[in-house]
Amino acid sequence: MSSEFLVGLDAVDWVSLGYPEMPNWIRNLASNTPELRAASYNQIEDLIANAGSQSPENYGPISELLKTEMPIYITPFLIELLDYEKIEDKASILQLIYDLANYQDLVTSIDGEVYKARAKRVFEALRQGEPTYKMLLSDANASVRNMAKQVLSSIGLSNFS
Length: 161
Known about the structure:
This protein has one domain (9-154): Leucine-rich Repeat Variant (Alpha Horseshoe), CATH 1.25.10. It is built from nine helices and no strands. With 161 residues, the chain is an all-alpha fold.
């Protein structure tokens, strides 16, 4: 990986967002150590999908996810990880992106302009990954191809050409 990898990750004030470990978790998604990748994935997944949830089977309330701008900031870094050929577990990273996209249906049910504005910015950031997701439709790994298709569909891009 080049020295240009994840530029700007340390410029985000993760501490004020309430997630001081986020830069380490994002970097660890690129680790050669499967256990480290899995632990970091689980930490981020808990924040995205399970924050405020009463059970792991249900997403937490979108207002919990959008209480800070964290989802806006992590999205470009997750997409960037997908662009590096040597990254393992791309399907897991796509799952995180898919989980963020799944909140789109819940936006109309939340009160507060701040939440709606943040949600809009998250979905705009997710859509910026369209070229990357389309590239992954031809990945050698079937799980990656399947997740890329699901992500594209979830952000309203069902034409995969």
